[in-house]
Design a protein that fits this description.
Strands 2-1-3-4-5 form a five-stranded parallel beta sheet. It is built from six helices and five strands. Helix content is 41%, strand content 13%. The chain is an alpha/beta fold. The protein has one domain: Rossmann fold (3-Layer(aba) Sandwich). Strand 4 (96-99), helix 5 (110-115) and strand 5 form a beta-alpha-beta unit.
């Protein structure tokens, strides 16, 4: 992954920019040297065509992605639409990374557990490491350095 070869991601959405959708990008942006392209566009709800047009738009948005990021609270808000997004991802062999609810206030549904390649906490390092590992097979072994004052 580099600036010239960013990881292509799709973040699940309900055709609105809710707090969890926006929070994903806050966390991604907080990591140095993490380059990505976002293929999700919640503002692009088709004006006509109903549910089928919305599903086709989701397929177009997921197509260029390497990995799907799913805040689990989205599934509880609209299991049908998020389930469809998971179906499209799996049909296209695109791994899903689930992010636990913020503050872990929502139980993760069995369907999400069974279909996610990884489930991570709301932590910028956990999220970006999972994306690198699952999307690109990059080894992300990082060590925290703790300095002790010995004086």
């Amino acid at each position: 992954m580099s600036e010239k070869d960013p990881i292509r991601i799709f973040v699940t959405h309900l055709f609105k920019k809710d707090i969890d959708y926006l929070r994903v990008f806050e966390y991604l942006e907080s990591r140095d040297k993490f380059f990505y392209l976002n293929s999700s566009n919640p503002d692009n709800m088709p004006a006509a065509g109903g549910l089928e047009a919305a599903k086709e738009e989701i397929r177009k948005q997921i197509a260029p992605a390497e990995v799907i990021i799913m805040p689990v609270a989205h599934f509880d808000e609209n299991p049908e639409l998020i389930g469809f997004q998971m179906d499209v991802a799996q049909a296209a062999d695109k791994p899903i990374i689930a992010i636990q609810s913020f503050g872990e206030t929502v139980a993760i549904q069995k369907e999400v557990i069974d279909r996610a390649a990884d489930i991570v906490e709301w932590n910028d390092r956990s999220i970006t490491d999972a994306i690198r590992r699952i999307a690109r097979n990059e080894n992300t072994t990082m060590w925290e350095v703790v300095d002790f004052d010995m004086d």
